[in-house]
Every structure is written in C-alpha cells, then in structure tokens.
Design goal:
5 strands, 10 helices, mainly alpha, three-stranded mixed sheet, 71% helix
C-alpha cells in the first residue's frame, strides 16, 4: 500500500489541464530507421495521392464508368485521400526532425477525422459487398435495387453516420485528465494510446470502445462475410466461364481490401484490455497515479 505522502508526491506528476502539445513517440527508440521511413512513406504517400486522384477523375469523366461499383470506388478513393492527408504530413514532419510534437487542437482534429473516416470506410465496404451480392446473385433486379437515388442516399448516410457517432467519443476522450508527460506511444493520436496515458479510471471508455468496435467493425465484417459467402455459393451455378472468372476477380479484390483494412483495425482495437490498460489492474486510482509518476 502506498502512503499518503507517496500518493501526494505522485500526484505532482499529474496534470489535469489540457496540454499545449502531445509528443508522438513513434519510432523514437530507433532513430536509424526514421530516414528510411521518411523516404518510403513519402513515396507511398505520393503514389496514393496520384492513384486515388486518377481513379476519381477517370470515374467522373468516363460515362461508361458511371456505375454503382465505380461510384463507391470513387467514394473510397476520396476517403483514402482525406485519411492519408490527415495523418501522413504530420508523420513525415515528425520523422524529419527531432521534434515529435502535435498541438492539442491538431491532435483533436486528427483523432476525429481519422476515426470518422475509418467508421465511414467500414460502412462503405459493407455497402460495396451488398452491391456485389446484387450484381451476381440478383442480376435481374439489380437496376431497380441499386438505382442512382439510392446510391447517393447510401453514400450520404455512410459519410454522415461515420462522423456523427464519433462526436461523443471524441468529446469523452479529450475531456480525460492526462499524465503531465503527454507522451503518446504511437505515430498518430489514437484512442488506445490516449487511454493509456489517462490519469483517471477509464473503465467506462474501455467499455464504450468495445461497443464501438462491435458496431463499427465486427457487425460490418460479419455482413461482408455473409455477402461473399452467398456469392461463392452462387458463382458455380453460372453458365458462363467468363462470368465466373469476373465474379471471383471482383470479389477477390474486394476481399483483399477488406482483409487489410479490418485486419489492421482489429489488431489495434480488438485486443486484451491488459495491453492498453495494464496500469489499471488493481486499485484504479493508485495504479493511475503510479503510472504517471514513473513516466
């Protein structure tokens, strides 16, 4: 048990006010990798900007590509442009020099945009799976089901709902009292990393994060798997070998994107609580004070 004096000393390491800046640790322990990462990420970022911009322009300018599939693909490309632009420039700036900081307002904006776009992508990928299901399994009704009006409505719902549900979560996260070191063990302002440096009990936020993960990750992924399962069952019944090849090719590319995206998300958000709340195993207040003090 800690004495009252010890607890008071530890409380000196806790800052209950909003910090001016956060320190993004990233690869700070491996400075020899930073120059390499700077070059590699810069190249990938440039290719991402050019590739997704090209997809949007071609899809818009070519009348032959005014189809539901390319409509959603354009939305996905625009989402990737927004996401990389909200994260990568700050990451490159931190890799370039010794300063690894981001302002408090910048952290709030980055957190909100990145997580909001992630939620939107979950919905868009689910809708795209439903679109492929209708193309392959219900071709005679496809034109009626996936009409232009419905496409715009679904896209609007995906974008709006992705950010609306993040508003409360962002407010809760950035009203936490934080340890005074403000060191975020990540490249970007991400919820598990911010929870880890909280100086208060975060059990409520952890439960809220679990519910958010189920709603935005587990359920959409389940719907995508079911849609592709129905497609796999129906493809062997196609009379055309070319049709079967195109169906598997289209769904295969979609599943690659789904696997990469949801695999990354689940590696971050679906994990034992002990990995990002290891300081809260016993008495929450004492453990929080101790974690802030030793940091």
């Amino acid at each position: 048990m800690l004495s009252k004096v010890d607890s008071q000393e530890m409380m000196k390491g806790i800052n209950l006010s909003a910090p001016a800046v956060f320190i993004l640790l990233g690869f700070s322990d491996y400075p020899q990798l930073e120059k390499v990462l700077l070059l590699v990420i810069s190249i990938i970022y440039a290719l991402t900007l050019m590739g997704n911009t090209a997809i949007i322009l071609v899809s818009y300018l070519s009348l032959k590509l005014h189809t539901p599939m390319y409509f959603f693909l354009s939305n996905l490309s625009f989402l990737y442009l927004c996401f990389t632009t909200s994260v990568v420039p700050q990451m490159l700036w931190n890799l370039k020099g010794p300063r690894k900081t981001i302002t408090y307002i910048g952290c709030v904006i980055q957190f909100y945009i990145a997580l909001g776009l992630g939620s939107t992508e979950c919905i868009l990928l689910t809708v795209m799976a439903y679109n492929y299901f209708n193309v392959i399994c219900r071709p005679l009704h496809y034109g009626v089901i996936m009409n232009p009006k419905l496409l715009k409505q679904v896209a609007a719902v995906a974008w709006i709902s992705g950010f609306v549900e993040l508003t409360i979560q962002t407010i809760l996260i950035f009203h936490l009292s934080l340890c005074n070191h403000h060191r975020v063990d990540d490249f970007i302002c991400k919820e598990p990393a911010l929870i880890k440096i909280a100086s208060v009990d975060t059990a409520f936020l952890e439960n809220e994060l679990s519910i958010f993960t189920v709603l935005c990750v587990v359920i959409p992924l389940g719907l995508i798997v079911v849609s592709h399962g129905c497609i796999v069952r129906s493809v062997p019944g196609m009379s055309s070998a070319e049709g079967r090849r195109r169906a598997f090719g289209t769904c295969g590319s979609h599943m690659i994107v789904v696997t990469l995206f949801f695999g990354t998300i689940m590696s971050v958000y679906i994990q034992p609580k002990s990995q990002y709340t290891q300081n809260h195993r016993f008495n929450p207040v004492v453990q929080i004070e101790f974690s802030c003090y030793i940091s």
